[in-house]
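Marked as duplicate of an earlier ticket. Keeping the data here for the record.
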Amino acid sequence: MARRPTLEFWYEFASTYSYLAAMRIERLAEEAGVEIRWRPFLLGPIFAAQGWNSSPFNLYPAKGRAMWRDVEREAARLGLPALKRPDPFPQNSLSATRAATYGMDHDWLVPFSKAVFESAFAKGQSIAEPPAIVALLNDLGLDGTVILKAAALETNKGRLRVNGEEARSRGIFGAPTFLTDDGELFWGNDRLEQALAWAVGDRPIGIR
């Protein structure tokens, strides 16, 4: 049986558009016959390398206002709960991302990632404090305290740093980003369908 094409899904828990993508990527990928590799990472260091000390949606208020309205429309269109804006935005996603990085070797990564996004953007809850992450893990039937302790070990923290370096080296500058088997990069929730099409070999005429 031929191997299904793979699409890497690079996401940041503080990212509104990563939230939208995470809530719909599984169904679309299954319909397209594509395997998804979930890749949590921290966007803050990438922004810092560009000279930004916050989200561009905060640095450019007009852009931020347009983004929030756009995400509200998209959440409604997708049948998701009404968007709840986290305060502050963006949230500190370090603890959640450490846990997700540790979860890359476990089958709970996807349900945990979706639970974090739902907590932040569908419920308006904080994901910044470690006890909040422990509670989300516990709700999945896991031992959140043990997992968060393992996620804070230097081996896992080092893996998270390496993932961030990999993201930069592969040209990732925002989230969500989708990378196909041949290295084609698609940025943004609105490019998910195009990324899946590319992954299965459906290319625009004249583009290889």
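See parent ticket for discussion. The domain at 6-199 is CATH 3.40.30.10 (Glutaredoxin).
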